[in-house]
Fold these 2 entries.
Entry 1:
Amino acid sequence: MAQTIVIFGASGDLTSRKLIPAIYSLHQKGRLPHDTNIVGFSRTAFSHDAWRQHLAESTTRFAGPQFDAASWHALAPRIFYFPGSVDRVDDFQALCKFLQEIEGGGAVTRIYYLSMAPQFYEMAVANLGTAGMAGEEHQPRRIVVEKPFGTDLASARQLNRQIHGVFAESQVYRIDHYLGKETVQNVLVLRFANAIFEPVWNRNYIEHVEITAAESLTVGHRAGYYDTAGVLRDMLQGHLLQLLTLTAMETPVRFEAEAVRDEKVKVLRAVRPIRQEDVLADTLRGQYRGYREEPGVRPDSQTATFAAVRLHLDNWRWQGVPFYLRSGKAMSCATTQLVIQFRQPPYMLFEGGPRDPRDSNRLVVQIQPAEGIQLHFHTKVPDAGMQLRMTDLNFRFREKFAGPMPEAYQRLLLDVIHGDTSLFARSDEVEAAWKIVDPIQAAWDTTAQPPLLLYEPGAWGPLESTEWMARQERSWFDTCPVLH
Ligand code: BG6
């Protein structure tokens, strides 16, 4: 079936940086269905040609060295622009007419992509409903909603209610672009396509789990959004909790959307709620030095740019195994990684063998940028008695597979086109994630505890974060990945 992808908020950054380059790459690889039209909608006055020209320039920049002018020229005539405002229902009605014209009356799947500031989501959804553009009586209609999906549980519920007033849940695709990353999906493959991990993937063998998303970049020009969001809403509620669900979930009965999403929701529901009195012991917050001088940041901003949170899952598999989630801007290096820290052997046979729990086996899943997996284990140092040393088996995607890793949006857009919701957050999943974040954010907003710790840009967050782990006889795996 033919498709029309309508991008609301077409003149924005996400469209030119991510969406159009992803659509272009799919087209270049021959994966975009031939009869796909793309229509941009926003207030800026562009003609079709002016928008195509604007996108040609940005796509040259963002699609990378693979960009090829000839294939862009083949795609460009299928890109259209329709100026309009999200708060005007007559603009939606006019858009609907325009879509019917370019679709030529045939059977066409429509994808409405909300790539605009979140305060306009409700308006756009309502107007899609009023203009009669949401009903699926004849052909599929899908809506893609970008993050942030609400700013807390109440607003997420309200948004869900409002969307469900117009679209059925099966039509809704809530994006968390982490789920489009190959290495994130590979967590499921690692766990469920191999027999050797599952028997040890539980409290009997795993001492703790660490999920880190460290960024070396500062907030840059995004302060307007970031200073009101902060690290919990920006990174933890979505990306880190998504990684947690894939790491901790039970085997789904089938590899299909509802079965996978059911298991993910169960993980979020198993997270022990953090009570106000636990926030001091279980969370750390920090802000990099210089954040308040960033353009657009309030000079007395209390917004956290670093968070470390200890979560417990109350279920049979994970009882007693802490999950540490950590993220920060302006950190030592960019690395997103999942660290499975195993327990020590029950008895150390070798006299010089390691006795510190921090020196036991570790499985490091590198999500990005050094995509790969390392297994750390002890080895006998040759010709040195029974001296032992930690060594590793090192798998890297780049060494085993040709070609660059695709951008997450390619996979996600393709899934929307094919109607596969597996990699998108369901309404109950989003709400369960906010239930975890809300009490922490509320305590951070209303009390001075834990204190907002300043850290130097280029460090692994505040020093106290290292000390906090040391007090628990644990340590972060603070290693910048080798990139070559
Ligand atoms: C976004 C956050 O969702 O994810 C950004 O808003 C963050 O603050 C980004 O930088 C990280 O994504 P990635 O794919 O670069 O790890």
Note: The longest strand covers residues 206-214.
Entry 2:
Amino acid sequence: MLIDGHGRTVNYLRISVTERCNFRCQYCMPEKPFSWVPKENLLTFEELFLFVKVAIDGGVNKIRLTGGEPLLREDLDKFIKMISDYKPEIDLALTTNGYLLPEAAQRLKDAGLKRLNISLDSLKSDVAAKIAGKDVLAKVLKGIDKALEVGLKVKINMVPLKGINDDEILDLLDYCKAHNMKIRFIEYMENRHADQSLKGMHGKEILEKVKERHTIEALGREGASPSFNYALEDGTEFGLIDPHKHDFCENCNRIRLTAEGNLIPCLYFDEAMSIAESVKKGDIQGAADVLAQVLKDKPKENRWSEDNPNEEKEISSRAFYETGG
Ligand code: SAM
């Protein structure tokens, strides 16, 4: 079992396989970064897999591939198959914007992927285009249909933004209900890479919107998930991810790995250690030592909390597209 310095069990690894993205979402990567990580600095899937084995052997039983846009990385299905063949019972999931799913969904499923989280911030094509920086909605909806058709379990992520898509919370809830998918509303997390004019909706405001049409019952958190679950009067469930409350930090079970090999103990903090040197040499013990040190140093909690009004509510200088959100 992997235990961190605060006694928490860590069993969840998120891997950002690329920082590159085909969307320019206002809250994440509104403009193309000045430079991308050079291709030669990216770990190969074989190198990433060496670390994956160390993590799985240590006790990781849930892996999520993310980015950037993970479907931009060539041969992602081969990496999925490597992980799935090594430990078929692993909870193997992917977070994507869905744009490339119409072509990729079947391959991902065949390789052993089990679940997908798809970002869908609007059902209006002009609003979706405004948020993502290009006309994306039709292809994303097609991607969602395809993922469901091939039998992948799908959850939807929406980031409600004031004055942009805050009037679509109920519509997205209806859409997800009709497609038998769970939606999770994510509070916008302030960060220096986003469009600084954005204003996110607070968790309480999101719940107020839902209550305009529904009665809701609080169900609680599902294990160590940052999502707090609610049920509508007919039993339909939805989730709210509200990092500004940060009461999920005490159950945090995750670490993050970037495409360059930085192992990050917390989305909020800059601190990270690199596994690149170890995995490039095939040094399993070296990679395990880095993992042990990162677990020891994992911070107690993030600093988005409203209990800390003087703290800057920001994440590390690292962008979401680098760490995978
Ligand atoms: N490209 C993929 C996608 O769009 O889902 C995966 C990467 S994206 C960084 C992962 C998740 O982070 C998405 O659900 C996105 O909505 C969320 N995200 C990115 N920036 C965010 C922010 N500033 N606040 C809240 N969520 C954010």
Note: The longest strand covers residues 12-18.
